Amino acid sequence: MSGARLKDVAERAGVSIKTVSNVVRGAARVAGPTRERVLRAIDELGYRPHASARHLRTGRSGVIALAVPELVAPYFAELATCVIAAAKESGQTVLIEVTDGDPAEELRIACGLSDPLIDGVLLSPLGLDQTALAGRERRVPLVLLGERDYEVPADHVLIDNVAAARDATRHLVGLGRRRIGVIGWQHDEPPHATAQQRMQGHREALAEAGLAYDPVLAPAVGAYTRADGAAAMRELRALPQPPDAVFCFTDMLASGAMRVAHDEGLAIPEDLAVVGFDDIQEARYMVPSLTSVAPDKQELARLAVKALLARIEGPAEAPPTTVLAGYDLALRESTGLSPSRP
Amino acid sequence: MSGARLKDVAERAGVSIKTVSNVVRGAARVAGPTRERVLRAIDELGYRPHASARHLRTGRSGVIALAVPELVAPYFAELATCVIAAAKESGQTVLIEVTDGDPAEELRIACGLSDPLIDGVLLSPLGLDQTALAGRERRVPLVLLGERDYEVPADHVLIDNVAAARDATRHLVGLGRRRIGVIGWQHDEPPHATAQQRMQGHREALAEAGLAYDPVLAPAVGAYTRADGAAAMRELRALPQPPDAVFCFTDMLASGAMRVAHDEGLAIPEDLAVVGFDDIQEARYMVPSLTSVAPDKQELARLAVKALLARIEGPAEAPPTTVLAGYDLALRESTGLSPSRP
Questions:
Q1: Exposure string (b/e) for A182-202, b if CB count within 10 Å is 16 or more?
Q2: pLDDT of amino acid B23
Q3: Which residues are in the HTH lacI-type domain (chains A, B) (predicted)?
Q4: Which of A15, A21, A337, B285 has the fewest Cβ atoms within 10 angstroms?
């Protein structure tokens, strides 16, 4: 291992030790040419910072972890991108971990075991049992990011899923639809909180409109994938009385459902109006473009990073908070908005 | 900081120290209930492994970094997912970093500065100047993953982009198309290697068929986004003689281009045949579904992880290798395959 030290790098690059330190940490405030000079000096000398020394000296690594269930769902890729941007504004870098929704992996990350250098964890939980998290002693600052309703002593940033789902179904009711299907219900025991909350909002909107809830219009899905959305739509189409509208709990489910509707020759929205959830970039480009509940991902990310930094810097004993980010309903062709260029 | 040690955790959980160590590293071979018991003991005792101690003892952290330009492009999200799966098979965990294609950030990661604990780096470079990388002394094992043609002393895993692009344009020629546009050319100096290679393959296929290359059919794009694809298609449609087919250098570009073609009332593939590149999941669900060059992402990931592990475990001085993964052309509706359920 090379014996080069920070001082040697600074001398070779003709800059201060502080500047080298800033470059190593990836701080944005070092000008491009200087940054490049320092990096070349680091490279030439084969310098590597000693992790624990750096960590122990400042007590902070400037690195936070973001754990998400998956990246193939564009929602999480877009959310991660917003978190990286928000963290960068505060001079933090982000390492991303993918949990596959595995409860043990989520707990391992929540305990700060995945990388001992990180200052804190943003966790978008999926499989994690809340009793497991409740026992956690918060050795590592933790903020939960996402839709589940956790009764645990950790900060939580999310949107009001019940209200957002109610708005989605209200919109379909407002179009005169009376037989409104749902794609996204899950038969797990207990059902996933996201599905539960969105179903609650859906049912509240039906009740307001005097419409009965019919469980055959809510086929269960295994996961929130395009293939699951396609399979659920085939089930709905096979009913004696298929729906005239469908509220999908994610845009991925809606993508699969709309593809099947297209294959069966249905006109959207005339024969079937469709609303999705997440407002992924793709929703604006689909044919037809997809009306979707749009969580304010930038605000979610900003609030989550802010809460985590407050927890890292502030007293560990402050009571946990729940913070709501905003959302919107983005209206598009799948519920009758006339085509417009994306 | 807590004084709990590995031994204390093992005693509390009633398992061996080796088992605790396996759980901490995230090794998959510990059974679920045992894993949970260990994690609870870790949590109750507030144990945190001492990073450098662990690292120095084994000389390995079992963690590799994957750096990609962005995650919003589904290609990189899908590739990252394949890398995580391939690494898991070898007992490695993956931390993902997003570079935004920033040359200094890519160089910082290639030098192993982003996280001193990692054993090695898989880098999908975008902005990095190859002269910067060439000076690198390989203190951290590095494998390049992706389409650029780097003349640097590092292992490189990629597909044959020239051949793949040639196949794409040959397919359009085979359909009888004679005025074949290209979306994805970039006017940077020097042009991005990916664009250069795909353009070379395209032009070779035109030449084979006795077709002249017409630069007005290759409008430049700023980036490989849906919006850029849409803008390029508008340019092509405004030509006195618009194309009867278009080869898009990514599926994202094709998504934007097809949306504009739809808005202008074109029938795909009758009026305009479209081929994309990357074979992202969405390609199978678009209306119409998109014919696309399909790099074998699983093989790319497997080969890249294998090359990196060989570099981590093997002699640092072995000469760098270039390994090619396979690809395929996935035929779908956008070039005339009849509709079928995804």
A1: bbbbbeeeeebbbbbbbbebb
A2: 75
A3: 4-58
A4: A337
Instruction: List the CATH number of the domain containing A23.
Output: 1.10.260.40
pLDDT tens column, B200-242 = 999 999 999 999 999 999 999 999 999 999 999 999 999 999 9
CB distance A112 to A140 below 8 Å = yes
* Global ipTM: 0.84
The residue among B19, B113, B136, B268 with the most chain A CBs within 10 A of its CB, best to mutate, is B113
Q: In a mutagenesis test of the B interface, which of A56, A108, A225, A333 is the best target, namely the one with the most B β-carbons within 10 Å?
A: A108
Q: What is the mean pLDDT of residues B172-198?
A: 88
Same domain for A181 and A274: yes
- Based on the fold, state whether residues A178 and A31 are members of the same structural domain: no
Give yes or no for residue B108 having a pLDDT over 90. Answer: no
Q: Which residues between 289 and 328 in chain B have a beta carbon less than 8 angstroms from any beta carbon of chain A?
A: none
- CATH number of the domain to which A78 belongs: 3.40.50.2300
Q: What is the pLDDT of residue A340?
A: 53
Task: Please identify which residue in the block is written with the tokens 């910082």.
Answer: B108
Domain identity same for A192 and A279: yes
One domain, residues A273 and A183: yes
As a whole number of angstroms, the distance between CA B253 and CA A28 comes to 31
> Residues B154, B71: one domain?
yes
Domain limits at B73?
A: 63-158+296-326
Question: Cα angle at B102 between B99 and B107, to 5 degrees?
Answer: 85
B70/A80 CB distance under 8 A: no
What is the C-alpha separation between B26 and B40, in angstroms, rounded? 14
Q: pLDDT tens digits for B272-283?
A: 999 999 999 999
- Residue B56 forms part of a structural domain: no
In chain A, which residues have pLDDT < 50?
Answer: 1-2, 51-57, 341-342
Residues A172 and A222 in one domain: yes
| Same domain? B170 vs B180 | yes
